Amino acid sequence: MKRSKQTRDEIEAKQRKAEEWRRTLAQRAAERQRLRDYKIALARDEVAVVTSQLAPSNSYSIPDFVERGTYRPEPSVCKDCGLAEVWTPLQQKWWYETAKGDVFTKAVRCRACRTRARARKSAARRVHLEGLARKKPSAT
Ligand SMILES: [Zn+2]
Known about the structure:
InterPro entries: Zn-bnd_dom_prob (IPR025306). By secondary structure, the protein is mostly helical. The chain has helices at about 1-45, 65-70, 90-100, 110-135; strands at about 45-50, 70, 75, 85. Bound molecules: zinc ion (ZN).
């Protein structure tokens, strides 16, 4: 009786060990796959998307880069000066994950025109605020 219980315990222990081993192998395979995907992405000049960092969107459709899981170099033509540029994966990552840009927006201006547009906007805001300050009736 004792002997058969011992045998059963041994078999169960072996099975547990085998199960653990299978799990470890699966984990390692998953790690290798992730590493391979990462290397492929690097070789292709792509950068991984961290979806938790993206700005929330109400749209039901999923942008290409989210579906793919990586940012790819994207050709873009400036809408102001027509300069053809490459929107790099790191610039995209910054725009979507750090600046929380809408996931359906893309670069439409080159760097120089972007800087000019920003300066124009802040100048317009300043003029507007100064105008408001002038219109404000004085306190006394
Ligand atoms: Zn431009």
